[in-house]
Amino acid sequence: MDSTTLALLEKIFLTVFPLVAIVSVGFFYARKRHTDMTTANTINIDIFVPALIFSVLSAKSFDLPQFQMLAVGAAIIVLGSGLLLLPVCKLLKVSPKTFLPPMMFNNSGNLGLPLAVLAFGEHALPAAVVLFLVENLLHFTVGLYILDHKTNPINVLKMPMILATIAGLIWSTFDLHLPVAAATFIEMLGQISIPLMLFALGVRMTSVDLTHWKIGLWGAILCPLSGLAIALAIQPLLQLEPLHFTYLVLFGALPPAVLNYMVSERYQQEPHQVASIVLLGNIGSLIIIPATLFFIL
């Protein structure tokens, strides 16, 4: 094995290991001691993640136009995965409302944000945040509409993450400046969000069973496969610059978001099946993500 390959394998290990380690800490801690992450997750979604989003979007280095086509690509992957796998639901004898949301809405928050930073450095965070925002916006509009056609998409505007996005874009567009103390305060709040997401992912995995392992296995294969296929297919059309294309490929390879399980519980849409899809999808990412990094790095 030559030095270049060894260096690449070391890079992949250094990227994946911290993620797996933090998720494992959450998993084993929750196995040993009852851990209720409800309050922590709510605080993360309402305060820490919005702080991260605002901190990134309001920074001088953030230039929205340069991410437009990347955002379009992310939207095509999310929506295209649902359309591509819709016929598969009949073959697997599973409800589209159960199977398609986990296939469409990936783990761009808990996994995508830290993965991008570890793989490409801090300069990748703005792009990762854009991908995360596209996926979340579609999840809380299209995703909820799939489960309940009476859902009012306007409610998404009340979400702290969306409000932080709007505020951050205004700050960036008009070249406004925060006092250094305030900027540092918001940045530090935002830095809490990513490790907490990973820890919460580990805790969540302890409450998932493998009763429906077959559908979970199919999901673990088809979720990244559809995302990667679409990312590769649309590149000739979008003509993304090489670095943005690697971000999009990595986005396409991400496993189902844990949020799919929480939403399925809320709407009573076969949560046990969704749980198996989410769990096995994230376990499968231990193979898919390193393989994808080997391809794009």
Automatic annotation (TrEMBL):
<feature type="transmembrane region" description="Helical">
    <location>
        <begin position="68"/>
        <end position="92"/>
    </location>
</feature>
<dbReference type="GO" id="GO:0005886">
    <property type="term" value="C:plasma membrane"/>
</dbReference>
<protein>
    <recommendedName>
        <fullName>Permease</fullName>
    </recommendedName>
</protein>
<keyword id="KW-1003">Cell membrane</keyword>
<feature type="transmembrane region" description="Helical">
    <location>
        <begin position="215"/>
        <end position="238"/>
    </location>
</feature>
<feature type="transmembrane region" description="Helical">
    <location>
        <begin position="275"/>
        <end position="296"/>
    </location>
</feature>
<feature type="transmembrane region" description="Helical">
    <location>
        <begin position="104"/>
        <end position="121"/>
    </location>
</feature>
<dbReference type="InterPro" id="IPR038770">
    <property type="entry name" value="Na+/solute_symporter_sf"/>
</dbReference>
<keyword id="KW-1133">Transmembrane helix</keyword>
<dbReference type="InterPro" id="IPR004776">
    <property type="entry name" value="Mem_transp_PIN-like"/>
</dbReference>
<dbReference type="Pfam" id="PF03547">
    <property type="entry name" value="Mem_trans"/>
</dbReference>
<feature type="transmembrane region" description="Helical">
    <location>
        <begin position="180"/>
        <end position="203"/>
    </location>
</feature>
<feature type="transmembrane region" description="Helical">
    <location>
        <begin position="42"/>
        <end position="62"/>
    </location>
</feature>
<feature type="transmembrane region" description="Helical">
    <location>
        <begin position="154"/>
        <end position="174"/>
    </location>
</feature>
<keyword id="KW-0472">Membrane</keyword>
<keyword id="KW-0813">Transport</keyword>
<keyword id="KW-0812">Transmembrane</keyword>
<comment type="similarity">
    <text>Belongs to the auxin efflux carrier (TC 2.A.69) family.</text>
</comment>
<feature type="transmembrane region" description="Helical">
    <location>
        <begin position="127"/>
        <end position="147"/>
    </location>
</feature>
<feature type="transmembrane region" description="Helical">
    <location>
        <begin position="12"/>
        <end position="30"/>
    </location>
</feature>
<dbReference type="GO" id="GO:0055085">
    <property type="term" value="P:transmembrane transport"/>
</dbReference>
<feature type="transmembrane region" description="Helical">
    <location>
        <begin position="244"/>
        <end position="263"/>
    </location>
</feature>
